[in-house]
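User: Structure please.
Assistant: Input sequence and predicted structure:
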Amino acid sequence: MDTDHRMDTEPTNLSPNDVQRGLKLSIVEGAFATVHIQLTGGIFLSGLALLLRATDFEIGLLGALPALLSPMAFAAVPLVAVVGARRPVALIASVLGRGLFLVPALLLLFGRAVSFPEFLVLIVAFNALVAIAGSSWTSWMSDLVPQGRWGRYFGLRNAILGVVGMAVAFLGAKTLDAFRAAGQTGTGFGWLFAVAVACSSLAAVLLRLQPEPSLIRGTEPLRSRLSAPLHNRQFRQLLAFTAFWYGTSGVASPFFGVYMLGGLRMSYAAAAVYGIIAGATALVFQLFWGRAIDRFRAKPVLELSFVGVAALPLFWLFATPTFLTPIWADSLLTGVFWTGVNAALFAMVLGSARATESRESTVALFTTVTGLCGFCSAVAGGVIAEALAGMHFVWLGRTFINYDVLFVLASAARFASLLLLFRVEDPGAASARVTLVGIGDYGLRRLSMAKDLRPRSLALGMRRPSPDALEESGDAPSDTRDSP
């Protein structure tokens, strides 16, 4: 049964000035939160795992924990119901979770050794709390940002946070390289974690100041609200696609950073440059994909971007310590395609929620199912990597090892996932072909005019094809609304 229970999703108790203030505060808060995210994840988390002499299976397990703890997002639903607001739940959970890194920071700064099992326990608690905070925050923001501006606002926000992330990653990597050169890598991690916790504290202050739209309380029982998203056909289709994707292609996810630092013998700074190239490219494409989503809707953007993402793991097969060109090419294309995937998937998840009151359930269920699938996939990747630890063979002058097998499996799984993505419904969306033509036409006109890419020009240039044009192409959508 797919009865539409949509309610007004505009803020119900906030003035336009309050909304604008909240949107600006969210960007500044996100900048400080990004410092913590960068310094406690990615290459830094991989580097600490290597420092603690973790095995391939343990690294796979470490990478799988965020997915394993994702069902904790469901805890946000009853907590929000009891408290009656999302801001306190998101605030307390994020403060407690991010503050946990103060423990290893102090231990490492005072020369106390940290064992891998101890660190694993901390990561478990951290990810459980972050899952609760993330579910509450997503529901909160989906009400604060007007629906027709989701693509543009989150595109702008992500672009700004991308600049912050690039700067933090590079400075953190240079700092860690300096400590490693002095034989004090552990102390370097201690300082990075301390800075991360300090910035997360400032983020919490700003989060507390951010206004929250009033929460519409539903009359349905909690159990019914939790299961409500499963009655939505569009959501079920989207869930099937992402569950298969996360459940198969995640075998390589924990090992890209490890392969850079270990297999390719890259420094922390060089590994950070990878992220900087991806981030710089993403800056250009954040607003681009955001505008495309607002004009053509999310599904065609997701399809076009996902084709590119599916091929990226294959680039790693040809990289060597003396030939890193495939890695730099991958970083460039990562900024192009993953930006589109993340923005479009986020919009589709929010857009599939039929009512404000079901948003927490929608986000929690989506996060839980895909998270558990991702956990199984990452653990399987660790088992495969451990089982093939001694494998190596030479082809065309290149030595292939266990990680290369995971890269091939990840790419094949992503291509297979496209079959399920094509079946996902997105009412009113243009086809991928029409979207590609519209984007290509805009790009060619911009090149011929030899003008810089500007957000306002993008809004004017990427106009949706008229219904008549769509009918001529044979790809007319059922609805020609511009907003998702």
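Strands lie at 392-395, 398-401.
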